[in-house]
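REVIEWER CHECKLIST
Item 1: Sequence provided? yes
Item 2: Single chain? yes
Item 3: Sequence as submitted:
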Amino acid sequence: MMTQTNPSEPVHRDPAADTDPLLHLHKMSTTAGLGSQDYVAINITAIVAALFGFGSVLAIINNVLLVIPIVGAVLSIVALAQIRNSNGTQSGRGLAWAGLLLCGGITIGLIATRTVETMRRNQDQRAVADLCDQFGRLVAQKDYEEAYKLFDSDFQDRTKLDAFRTRLASFQENKFVPPIDAISWNGLIQFQSQDGGLDTAESVMKLHYKDTENEQRYGARFRKAAGESWLIDDIPELFPPPPPPPR
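Item 4: Structure as written out by the authors:
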């Protein structure tokens, strides 16, 4: 039998329940949040991967720093795997993708750019080597006027054709020294790009003398303006500057 409460009787309440609002809250399980959206942590690896992504710009400075985007790409992949396997308790997928795209994009871009640059420099090396060989053939044939055309305008302003011809003739018509029969480069060259599309290079020419194993080496400078071919800029030891006029 149910006991009815007499409405005329006063209801006794716990004074603590009126003053402590926490008592009105539902008790939560200690496993709440697992598999739910109550609390989602940001994956630390994703944050680090994003930082590596922004830092991968430093790889532009030096090839050694390419390790930054490579490590960042690996961290991004690890972060995506951790987030996928976290059962919804980790976030940061956007950070991980940002790091992966930055690292991957910069790495691919730098590799492509430097591959093109390497190919272009290889072509320049062959052009300089051919230029030295052509200069040697013309000197051996004593065709000094054609050899003179292999030099740029700056050299021709400093050294006139008559002085150029006289200097080379002193090698080819010397009774005590065998004539030059070939000129080549030593296989080493240093390129520099300047403003306005001007490229310069420094190398060493090897002068080979007929019927002998002796050779002489001279430092040489080369120059190529935008849209033009490589030319010899100077061979300072072979064509020393004229002495200054007397005061």
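Item 5: Key structural point noted by reviewer: The CA atoms of residues 148 and 160 lie 9 Å apart.
Item 6: Recommendation: ____
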